[in-house]
Design goal:
Length: 277
């Protein structure tokens, strides 16, 4: 009996240890340490005028939000797994009283294998942010995993044996190109509490071979082509931008241009011929 009791205690301790370490496979999926990072955030703990607020849960997961010292304000929340991998990033303009977000999934090697647009956080859950932010984010993650609500957009990323991206939804990567995945704050993110707080999921497709001549790199946002960048022997020549409907907006030859920021205004631009319809 003593032996059986010892076995039961050991099993219970192992189960508790697994739960404590946050290895809830159903919720967190693949969660290796040091997974690929694709979010380029502009606010750090040292950024003047902002504070990072961190809330931890018992399994080691945490939610980090940004708090402003002044207005106007946008909202930004990030949920990290027990092993520190970004699983949800969500944002919004404060006056809109809502959040839209992305879910990031990883393969067993820690590479991003899917970026899912979650749509908007439910109003009831939004009202609980601040008091139990980490639990709200975890419920949002769980809901997306369990129910996969209709209309959500996934970008299933396929790679070759070396880990190079070969295709994703709506984008095929030629063998002489490489794709870089980036989620970043886009446009007047921190400058407006009405139309700020917009995130973009970008894919930069860059030529890596046969650069001795002319070639074009491609920039996508949320699966849509938003810019083509022409080069000659590695030197930038010009860029062409497109709006969200795929209509060309403008051409730029400024070599100091921040093409990601420029595309924000052009993405929402409507040509006069379309407005007059």
């Amino acid at each position: 009996m003593k032996t059986n009791s010892t076995i039961v205690i050991v099993i219970a301790l192992i189960a508790f240890s697994l739960l404590s370490c946050g290895h809830d496979k159903e919720l967190w999926g693949n969660d290796p340490k040091g997974a690929e990072r694709i979010y380029e955030g502009g606010i750090t703990a040292e950024t003047e005028g902002f504070d990072l607020i961190e809330e931890k849960d018992a399994d080691g997961s945490r939610c980090v939000s940004v708090e402003h010292h002044s207005f106007p304000a946008s909202e930004l929340y990030t949920l990290y797994s027990p092993n520190g991998n970004l699983r949800i990033i969500a944002s919004g303009a404060q006056e809109q009283c809502g959040l839209d977000g992305y879910r990031i999934d990883y393969d067993e090697n820690g590479r991003v294998c899917n970026v899912l647009s979650l749509g908007g956080l439910e109003d009831e859950e939004y009202g609980k942010l601040g008091d139990e932010s980490v639990k709200v984010m975890k419920r949002w993650l769980q809901h997306s995993l369990k129910d996969e609500p209709a209309g959500l957009d996934s970008t299933f990323i396929k790679r070759d044996r070396d880990g190079n991206i070969t295709s994703m939804r709506g984008i095929d990567i030629p063998s002489d190109y490489r794709a870089k995945l980036i989620i970043k704050e886009w446009g007047p993110f921190w400058g407006s509490d009405i139309d700020g707080g917009h995130l973009g999921f970008f894919v930069m497709v860059e030529k890596i071979r046969d650069l001795d001549g002319s070639y074009v790199n491609y920039l996508y946002c949320d699966g849509k082509l938003i810019a083509e960048l022409a080069y000659w022997k590695g030197v930038f020549i010009k860029a062409r931008t497109y709006n969200r409907r795929g209509v060309m907006v403008n051409m730029y030859d400024d070599r100091d241009i921040d093409i990601t920021e420029q595309t924000y205004n052009d993405y929402w631009h409507e040509p006069k011929w379309y407005i007059d319809q």
